[in-house]
Amino acid sequence: MTSRWFLLSTLLLLCAPALAHAEDAAALWDKSCKNCHGPDGRAQTRMGQKESIPDMSRASWQKRESDAELRKVIANGSSHNPKMKAYKDRLTPEQMDALVGYIRTFKAEAKE
Ligand code: HEC
User: Which residues span the domain enclosing 84?
Assistant: First the structure.
């Protein structure tokens, strides 16, 4: 019995930071990225249309872009378009990693 409670509380302790992480990434996205990339990464925004920002929910886009490439653009900005700024001075490495993870969740709604 005691060992079962121990297991359960250990599990909860292990999950808590992961949950907090997911919320952080969503909040960060809403605050810093949504204006251009849209709430769902589809970039159906004025900036998205004007700058032809890629639709991050597309499976082909998700497949083409590696985590490392996404991480690099977030940290250093885009070499193609100065509107995509470098975030390395504004976000921690953990926040940038979390955002890459968050971008991967857009694929769930993918329609090709
Ligand atoms: C002021 C508008 C703007 C904001 C705010 C913005 N972006 Fe971007 N982002 C762009 C544009 C424009 C591009 C397209 C650049 C290009 O063509 O390579 C882009 C491209 C990207 C790409 C690469 C897409 C690709 O196909 O290579 C990633 C990843 C990205 N943004 C993530 C983010 C994240 C994460 C945030 C928030 C921390 C953010 N962006 C905030 C405008 C913005």
Answer: 19-109
